[in-house]
Each structure stands twice: as C-alpha cells, then as structure tokens.
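Sat 14:20. Reprocessing the chain from the morning session after the first attempt stalled halfway. Input below, unchanged.
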Amino acid sequence: MKALRFAASLALVAGIIAVYRLLPVNATTVALTLLLAILGISTWWGLAEATLASVLAVLAFNFYFLPPVGKFTIQDPENLVAFLAFLVTAATASQLSARARRRAAEAEARRLESERLYALVRSTALTGNPRKTIREFLNRVVQEFGCRAAAFFYREPDEIFRTGPESQPLTDHDLKTAAEIERASGEPTGDRVASPVRLGMRSLGSIGLVAPLPSPQMVRAIADLAALTIEKARALEEASHAEAARQSELLKSALLDSLAHDIKTPLTSIKAAATSLLGAAAAADRELLTIINEEADRLNQLAAEVVAMARIEAGKLHLEKREVPVEQVVTGALAEVEALRKGRPIAVRAAPGLPAAQADPELAQQVVKQFLENALKYTPEDAPITVSAEFKSGRIVIGVADHGPGIEEHERALIFDRFYRGRQHRFATKGTGMGLAIAKGIVEAHGERIWVESERRQGSVFYFTLAPASGGKQN
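Finished this time. Tokens:
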C-alpha cells in the first residue's frame, strides 16, 4: 500500500512536469503548481511521500525549467535564489502539512478513545460482588478498546483474573510488581502494559492489557475507572451484608420475643399450681413441689431476660422517663432480690441531699437488681455487699460493691457482652450471661455510662450513671 502511494506521488509530479513542458508557461507557475501538488500529497498520504515528491519536483524543476535547460547547473543568480526558495518552501510546506495531518489523526484517536471510555463507563454493570464486577470490567475493556486480552490482580484476596489464555504475556509477577508502583506512566513494555489501580493512597491491585493498546493517558484513565468501579462494588457488598445482618437480627429478636411469651404462659400455670399444692402438700411431697416452684421461677426469669434482650437488640426498648428518687430505685431492687438474699445484710450508703433522677423507674431498678444478683452469686455469704449512690460531675452515680473473686483484666471489656460469662465461674454458678448485657442496653438507652472496676481477690464494683431531674444540683 505504501509503495503504491510512493508511485502515485512520483507519477503526479511527473505528470505536472510533462504537461508544463508542452505549454508556454514561466518557471513561477510551474513552481507554484508543484508546491500545491506537494501540499496535497502531504495532506493525503503523509510526510514520507511528500518528501520524495519534493526531491523529484526540485530536480525536475531545475533540469527542465531553469536555464541552462537540460542541465542540473544554474547560471543566473536570480534563478538560484528561486530554486532555493522553492526547495525550502516545498520542504517546509510538507512538514507543516504532515504535522497538521498527524495532529488531526491524534485528535481523532483521542476522540475515539474518549467515546470508548464513555461506552465502558455506561456498560460497566455494578453488582454487590467485586469479583464478578472485575470479570465483567475486563471483558468490557477488551470489547471496547479492541485489546487482545486483559488481566487484573486483586490485591486484597490475592487473586488474578484473566480474560483468556491470550493474557499469558502478562505474568503474575508483572501484575504484582505493577501493584506496588504509586503512579505508572501507562507506557507499554513491548506488546503489553501493566498499570497500578489505586484509590487515593490505597492500592487495590493492578490491570494489564495486551496489544493493540490504547494511549498511555487512556491506560491510566482505565485504571482509575477500575478503582472506582471496584470500590463501588465493595460498598454495595458491604451494604448488602449489613442489611442482611440487620434483617437477621430483627427476625431473631422477633422470634425470641414470641418464644419467650409463649413460654411464660404455661409457666404461669405451673407456678400457680405448684404454689397451690405447696399449701396442702404432705411433707414427703413438699420437697419436690418446692423444686418445681423454684425452677418455674428460674424459667420465668429466663423468659423475662430473653424478652428484654430481644427488645434491646430490636431497638424497641421504650423509656418512660420521669422524676424518681434514687432511694426508690435502690429499695425497689432490694425488695426484688429479697428471696435470693436469704437474710444476708446489704449496706446502703446514699450521699445526703441526693437529687432525684430523670429515668425510667422500672428499668433503672432492673439495672440495680442485676448488679445485686451478680454480687449475691459471686460473694461469699459472710462477705459484705454495699450499694452506694452519690453525685459526681453533674451525674448521679449508683454502684454495687462486692467482695467476690474479682474479674480478670482481659475479661472486663467483655463482661457486658451478651452470653459472656467469666472463664472461672461459667460452670460453677447458674446464669445465661444476658443480665449484664441487658443492664448495659438499659443504661445506654438512657444515654448514660456503665462500667466495672475490679481487682483480683479484692472484689468488684459495678457502676452506672443517671441524669439528675432538676439541673444537676444537690438539695
């Protein structure tokens, strides 16, 4: 094809020379006609063809139209100047025309690449699966840009995706090495190119293409688009997982709530029957009925904890806040654990002039009750238990101190997690591990703090805060 263009260029110059040899025209007309022909050749075919035509035109112009005709020598200085001007003009015109043609071709190539990139953006399907998104992205890049193959190194799971065996020139080592580069130029290495895929300062991996290749600028643009596409897919995946987890938690909470209510109905009947029989039972049956009665109480307590936990997790713990004296919260909790105390003394130390709390009385009482039950479980019968209430830093602080075995330091951060029980006591004492988690949920629903302070073999103190009802001032 190129040989035909060279031949056509020479033929055009030769045709012009032959025509003007037959016509009575001056040298200026011949020179201008040849210049126009050379500009046309440069515009249509390129610089190489125009250069060859220029050489032929200069030689023919000198030989046939500048005296002495038929020789390559020039006698008149004016003709020499005209010859040199024609030579420079022909070469310069060829260069300018070729440059304009090249720039037009580059502009057209950039336009086509921009259209392909736009088509790639429109055709990229976002899914909640980054791996599937990467495979689809590679296939679309190959389709839109006409590359023979493409590959992607996904750094986080350390996986490499390929469009087919044609991508083998892109080795695993090439892709992994490219992922470590902060910013690539997009320049090819032979018939392939590998560019890092980064989102800000974070490396997601690298993308590689096998020839024919787009421009370096377009390679970088494809890498940037790959980063955004993958990050969006990851965000969709995380959002999908979060929504699934939320729905699972809601379903679980609803099931627990329903199950607990279904359990409480027969338990009420069992409790009523056992209490009735205990009043008229013979001595031989009293022990068994007492066991039934106590275990019914334990199951009833378990059902109540399940319901409370389900409501906390579902965000359905509705507070009915009002002014309540702290003494009422503490004495109510003491009354609820009366059976568990079995006469054991519990000291109450409340600071004088303590303001009333702004809280849900029943729920605040349940927190104190849980602290007391824990203290009674883990404190020896001859060791004291103390309930304290004081005003600190604008908050009412209620605490329950025991003289039990204490809590290991690494367990203190876990003690309020649901179903967690201390390693040393999980089999020695009864419980579900929900009580302190429920207490935490109640306190946090009030917008307050709950924590524990403990020392090995010295005991523990569980605290929580409540807001004062009237400006935080002591009476």
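The longest helix spans residues 216-280.
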